[in-house]
Amino acid sequence: MLEQFTFVGFLLVVALFLGIFLISLSWLLRPKRPSPRKSEIYECGLRPHGEPWVRFKAQYYIFALVFLIFDVEAVFLFPWALAYNWLPFYAVLEGVIFILLLGAALVYVWRKGALEWM
Fold this sequence. Notes:
With 118 residues, the chain is mostly helical.
């Protein structure tokens, strides 16, 4: 048992050393020719215009978070849907409760106005 942990520890040390070594090597061998043109902000191939710090509405952030949460919940439902025919009754009941909770969360988010795109 101990030799298995020794092997895993050895692989961990080798992986860390190799990662640090390769990153250091690329940093040492990279071309170092700074210029003002290279330091410019790149914006779709055009010269940037306006302020670089633009305030975004929090609504976009909330919309993205809600999408991410419901997307992850759909991933949790996928295996349950595949095994639906072989599940016992309590597992089906738990899945239905989970879907009802998702529906309640969707109604809550909808009433709060987080799904309104402005």
